Amino acid sequence: MSSEDITRVAVSTVILSLKREPGDEHASVVMPLVRRVRDPFEGRWALPGGWLDVHEGLDAAASRTLAETTGLSPSYLEQLYAFGAVDRSPTRVVSIVYWALVRADEVEQAHPQENVAWFDTADLPPLAFDHDEIVGYALWRLRSKVGYSRIAHGLLPGEFTLAELREVYEAIFGRRLDPANFRRQVENSGNLIPTDRFRTGSHRPARLYRYNREVELADRGPLTHGLAPAPLPSESSRS
Amino acid sequence: MSSEDITRVAVSTVILSLKREPGDEHASVVMPLVRRVRDPFEGRWALPGGWLDVHEGLDAAASRTLAETTGLSPSYLEQLYAFGAVDRSPTRVVSIVYWALVRADEVEQAHPQENVAWFDTADLPPLAFDHDEIVGYALWRLRSKVGYSRIAHGLLPGEFTLAELREVYEAIFGRRLDPANFRRQVENSGNLIPTDRFRTGSHRPARLYRYNREVELADRGPLTHGLAPAPLPSESSRS
User: Fold this and answer.
1) Which backbone phi and psi does A211 adopt, to 5 degrees?
2) Is the minimum CB–CB distance between B123 and chain A shorter than 8 Å?
3) Do B140 and B170 belong to one domain?
4) Local structure of residue A128 (DSSP, 8 states)
5) Cβ–Cβ of A54/B233 closer than 8 Å?
6) What value of ipTM does the predicted structure carry?
7) Which residues on chain B are in Cβ contact (under 8 Å) with A65?
8) Do residues A77 and A26 touch, judged by C-beta distance below 8 A?
């Protein structure tokens, strides 16, 4: 088998977080990129990732390469999509792409690595390979998923104010939302449960909410044994 | 590079359709399987599929191998998930799995191939590799997706009665649904548009409906340039 006949498998990861610089009026959706230190695309920014080892599963490879490059260890990585266009790399590479949303405090706990920087997704440099397309797809999925799932949860602490939740949506959609309309919509959704606690500080106290964990999470991967596990084959065969 | 160090890439396809045998009271969700003619798992039933050619994209490989094995050529194959557990095959194989829903008339048009048979998903034989798990995941996704998208559309003609739509849901969920409740729910969903036409026959005339194409389809792949295309990178960078 010559090297031209080989398809190699890589994993890459799209990590999204929210960042609000001191003095910024609004939060931004940010992501870590790794500067490539070898060809192809030497010097360009690329998604964190690496080669799949023959002895490790896809999820493990995604976690390992993410930790090696960025120091991040999110509790849950979801498989996003497999990218396999013939011309996406000078050699034939199929990339299994994972993604995760991480809170700002998780980002701060990670040990910064060389050649890693965080970028505002609204102002990205040209990326290596087809990573522009991959990031575009991830951001599109993020926007389409917040509408029907609790995905914004990944960017928030366990309890949050409606203003904090609205800020997440505003950063994802890149536009301001009317506070009264937003409150009405989320209160009618059944997704949020008000707590007895309040955020106090420089503003008037704001009630803290949490997500209703009984609302089923749609569209998780098959290997998740969390809130919405895939059925065992014996269960599914009853359908 | 020895053969033990190679990870190979395969594609497999889960094709789901509805079937109602003469005399059956209810429709069933059925799928085609291919009997393996070589080891590993010789004689077992498996998903249609084959190896990714180094010169073809993932979508093309899925379409080609599906047509070669089953004669089916659905207009749209959606990528479902990449399965890559280390022990899922005697050699290391990552399978990119696609799926599609096809109407009964599309199934009838396909030229039957050797070693292919259609099975009721509620009564499947033990499958080769991890294909039991893959089918279980596909059926779980089908059940979770019909709740928030127009996915049942793939199993129906362009216009259909509410009874025909309900039959799709009943087959997917494996239980009867109350006709009056079902009618109320779909009429309130905004997904259906009543037409001026009626199905006539042995029963009283039933109004035909079609799906509202303006309702955005959630969760399509990034390479779809149909109803809900992923944004170009230049669009997404504005978010």
Assistant:
1) -75, 145
2) yes
3) no
4) S
5) no
6) 0.81
7) none
8) no
The nearest alpha carbon in chain B to A119 belongs to B237
Cβ–Cβ < 8 Å for A164, A190: no
CA-based nearest distance B156→chain A, Å: 19
Rounded to the nearest 5 percent, the helix, strand and coil shares of chain A are 30, 25, 45
- Is A96 within 8 Å of B81 when comparing Cβ atoms? no
B8 touches A at CB < 8 Å: yes
Task: Indicate the Cα dihedral angle B230, B231, B236, B238, nearest 10°.
Answer: -150
Residue with tokens 């079902």: B182
Number of domains present in the structure of chain B: 2
Interface of A with B in 125-154 (CB under 8 A): 132-137, 139-141, 143-145, 147-148
- Band of residue A156 on the pLDDT scale cut at 50, 70, 90: confident
| Domain contains A90 | yes
Q: Is A228 on the interface with B (CB under 8 A)?
A: yes
Calpha distance A30→A15 (Å, rounded): 8
What is the helix (H) or strand (E) element at residue B235, kind and residue range?
A: helix B233-236
B3 by DSSP, 3-state: which? helix
How confident is the model over B15-43, as pLDDT tens digits?
999 998 888 888 899 999 999 999 999 99
Question: For residue A237, is it within any domain?
Answer: no
Q: What is the CATH number of the domain that holds B119?
A: 3.90.79.10
Instruction: Please indicate whether residue B111 or residue B159 has the higher confidence score (pLDDT).
Output: B159
